[in-house]
Amino acid sequence: MGAVAASIEEEVARLNRVVTDVLDFARPIRYDISRADLVEICRDAAQAARTGQDAVAIHVRSHEHEAPIDTDVERLRAVLVNVLTNAEDAMRSRAEAGPASPILVRIGRNESSRWTVDVQDHGPGIAPEHLGRVFEPFFTTRKSGSGLGLALARNVIEGLGGSITIDSRAGAGTTVRLTLPDRPAASGARA
């Protein structure tokens, strides 16, 4: 009886996440913009994503001691947790190949002086036929996924005046890149 109850609780929690994701995806996003440190946001997201005994190590690297940015801290953190959780899932699927390499989070500036956050895993990569669809609402290859995580992530990042891209090679891993301005344009984020 205990296993059945636990299974029902897991399914209710999964359905609750799906409904919450659908509601978040459907309504306009309201942003709460404040001054923050991108390095600290990344470290906090890495800590939040490391759950359970089989958590994959996450290393946060930055040439900058601080990375000042005006952003919606909670929404950006949620995007990073989602991306890091996806990377952990990918690394776990390769666990039988030996000890997992750490997930790398690199913070820097690009040639346009925008902040970049690269999340790199050494998982199995994304199949070429799926790569073009990963930002589509309700597209997922995971049993427990709603297919809204990356679609929501793209909406949030674009609303903050940035972009999100994915580079993946089957068998070699995946890198998700977030590119963000120092501060969102007035029309890009609503306070």
Please tell me about this protein's structure:
The protein is α+β, with helices and mostly antiparallel strands and 191 residues long. It has a single domain, classed as Histidine kinase-like ATPase, C-terminal domain (Heat Shock Protein 90, 2-Layer Sandwich). The protein is 38% helix and 22% strand. The protein contains five helices and seven strands, in the order αβαββαββααββ. The chain has helices at residues 2-26, 38-49, 73-92, 128-131, 149-159, and strands spanning 34-37, 58-62, 68-71, 103-109, 115-121, 163-169, 173-180. Strands 2-4-5-7-6 form a five-stranded mixed β-sheet, covered by helices on one side. It has a two-stranded antiparallel ribbon with strand order 1-3. β4 (103-109) and β5 form a beta hairpin. α2 (38-49) crosses α3 (73-92) and α3 (73-92) packs antiparallel against α5 (149-159). The protein is globular, with a radius of gyration of 17 Å. It starts with a helix and ends in an 11-residue tail after the last strand. Residues 187-191 have low confidence and may be disordered.
Summary of the model, kept short:
This protein is of the alpha+beta class. Helices cover 38% and strands 22% of the residues.
Key words describing this protein structure:
7 strands, 22% strand, 191 residues, five-stranded mixed sheet, Heat Shock Protein 90, alpha+beta
Give a topology summary.
Elements: H1 2-26, E1 34-37, H2 38-49, E2 58-62, E3 68-71, H3 73-92, E4 103-109, E5 115-121, H4 128-131, H5 149-159, E6 163-169, E7 173-180
Parallel strand pairs: 2-4
Antiparallel strand pairs: 1-3, 4-5, 5-7, 6-7
Helix pairs in contact: 2-3, 3-5
